[in-house]
Design goal:
alpha/beta; Rossmann fold; five-stranded parallel sheet; 5 helices; binds 1,3,4-trihydroxy-5-OXO-cyclohexanecarboxylic acid
Length: 145
Amino acid sequence: MNILVLNGPNLNMIGIREPEIYGSKTYQELELFLNNLAVDYHFNIEIKQSNLEGILIDLLQYANTRFDGVILNAGAFTHYSYALYDAIKSIQIPVIEVHLSDINSREEFRKISVIRPACKKSFMGEGFISYEKGIKYLLEEGAKS
Ligand code: DQA
């Protein structure tokens, strides 16, 4: 199985940005964590990060014919990007929404995820484990769809 992990704006700043919310581990540590999962669970992984909405959309479209599923942490775009919602709806492979923090227990604006209805499943509030749960879901369920 080929899985694309797509991280949106400011995810490259974890470890530095608001560690009380996002933890003290860096983006490089997240990449290492994900690459280790790929070895342990025997799947192919590609990891991308962009601060730009259009690049995330390009990557989702690119993934459609090249990957079996996408793990997407859309960062703040989660809360207002209908363009990302449309991009997810446009492709046939499953997209799993993930977040490091629990967006339901933070500011009001974070409680809304406009991309969620387009995603197959959401995992949040467990730091790197949110990504692991999303990947395990794709490995177990994604292959069936
Ligand atoms: C986030 C939550 C978003 O609200 C925020 O804008 C982020 C990170 C998370 O992983 O918890 O950038 O997606």
